[in-house]
Amino acid sequence: MTRKQLNMKSAEDRLKAKLDKMATIQETIATKQEELVRLVETLLKANPNVLVVRDSLHEELIQLQDDAVEMESEIKELGLKVGETVKGEKLQAIFNQGRRSWDNQMLENWAILLPAIMEAKKAGAPYISLKGVK
């Protein structure tokens, strides 16, 4: 194995170790959240009046969330009609032009005939996202 291959293997091993540690942290968080839910449920059962207040607040919260979803939809629709960023006192609706893209395969084919096209090609930096292993 070459030095470069050994370094890549070492980096891969470190990454695997960090992934395993991250999974352990996520599992611990989930366990603590479950413990917290059980504790709150126990406390609520000990004082039945709290359940009535909780249910009332929960219903209000659900209605507010529904209202917020509907309002966000209305704001976005109206914002598109206005066609520019509008600031309120606490929120702003930021207008963004739609992204423009090119057919990469077609440009690659054209670049065979006209290599200068490749000078306009830009590539984003690679990035990492995490998801569970199935």
- The Cα radius of gyration reads 27 Å
Strand content: under 5%
Span between N and C termini?
31 Å
Rough outline: flat
Number of strands: 2
Strand arrangement in the largest pleated sheet? 1-2
| Helical fraction | 55-70%
SSE pattern: HHEEH
| Low-pLDDT regions | none
Total helical segments: 3
Structural class: mainly alpha
Residue-averaged pLDDT, rounded? 87
Major β-sheet annotation? 2 strands, antiparallel
Would you write up a description of this structure?
The protein has about 130 residues and is an all-alpha fold. Among the domains are: about 1-45; about 50-95, no CATH class. Helices cover about 65% and strands about 5% of the residues. The chain has 3 helices and 2 strands. The protein has helices at about 5-45, 50-80, 105-115, and strands at about 85, 90-95. The longest helix has about 45 residues, at about 5-45.
Quick recap:
It contains three helices and two strands; from the N terminus they run H-H-E-E-H.
Brief descriptors of the model:
mainly alpha; 66% helix; two-stranded antiparallel sheet; 3 helices; 134 residues; 2 strands; single chain
Q: Topology of this structure?
A:
Blueprint: H1 3-46, H2 48-82, E1 86-87, E2 92-93, H3 104-113
